[in-house]
Amino acid sequence: MTTLTALVDAAITLADTTNDRILLGLSGAPGAGKSTLAWHLAAALTAAGVPATRVPMDGFHLSDAQLAALGRRERKGALDTFDGWGYLALLQRLRTERDHVVYAPEFDRTLEQPLAAGLAVAPDCHVVITEGNYLLAPAAPWSSIRHLVHEIWHCDLDDAERRHRLIERHQRFGKSAQAAADWVAQVDEANARQVNAWAPAATRRIDVAQLGLPPGRD
Ligand SMILES: Nc1ncnc2c1ncn2[C@@H]1O[C@H](COP(=O)(O)OP(=O)(O)OP(=O)(O)O)[C@@H](O)[C@H]1O
Ligand SMILES: [Mg+2]
Where are the beta strands (DSSP E) in the chain? Predict the structure, then answer.
């Protein structure tokens, strides 16, 4: 059985191999629990004396203005609705730039828009936990991510529970019950099937339900 403690120990073992900054990726379908796990891992690592923080791929969502220009607003969350090259460039910077703060974009769920420099990665940050749907996508530029991060752990969660959590979150951020259910069925689930098909390329699979993590910030 996988526990948060075992995952923290594995991340510390990885960090102990080098003074260089470690990039640890978490992949998984929409709603699988990547952000929740990333928060818990970062907090536990920092508490154990290994400064860690979370940098989400979600900060590289295209803005609604760009999506409208591309005619992709109704498919927000699909692979081509993210700035993959921008994300890759940030990961490269996080690997190499340790003498200053590296700012990263956050995704604001209330605005449903990316927010530049929403996150700050301090020079002493030893482990960056970067998480998102498309870390294992096989096409460029995404296919380069696996060479930049040290490991990618894939989060698995039962589909029914995952959909339930997604619908709840869409409603919490303002969608009606019907609109939330429709969005999950028509948009999120197509992305989920794609993301889970790439899971065999992960370094490790995590049965998220086994961890029993309380929901935190998402
Ligand atoms: N143990 C739990 N019980 C109930 N809900 C949970 C639990 N853990 C997480 N959640 C909720 O499930 C939703 C999805 O979790 P989370 O945001 O961590 O997933 P994610 O993989 O980052 O999703 P996305 O790909 O959409 O960003 C969130 O609203 C979160 O608060
Ligand atoms: Mg998330």
Answer: 22-28, 52-56, 102-108, 113-121, 127-132, 151-156, 204-207
Which residue, judged by its Cα, is nearest atom 19 of ligand 1? 33
Give 35 Cα–ligand 1 centroid separation in angstroms. 7
- Residue ranges lining ligand 1, Cβ < 6 Å: 28, 30-36, 58, 133, 165, 169, 213, 215, 218
CA of 53 to the centre of ligand 2 (A): 14
Domain boundaries along the sequence of the chain: 4-207
The ligand placed nearest to the CA atom of residue 212 is 1
Residue nearest to atom 29 of ligand 1 (CA): 169
* Residue, of 195 and 218, whose pLDDT is higher: 195
For 198-214, write each residue's pLDDT tens digit.
999 999 999 999 999 99
- CA distances to 31, 59, 108, 117 from 103, rounded to whole Å, are 25, 11, 15, 5
CATH architecture, domain defined by 4-207: 3-Layer(aba) Sandwich (3.40)
Cα–ligand 1 centroid distance for 33 (angstroms): 4
Q: What would the pLDDT profile of 85-102 be if each residue is shown by its tens digit?
A: 999 999 999 999 999 999
- Residue count of the chain, please give it: 218
| pLDDT at site 117 | 98
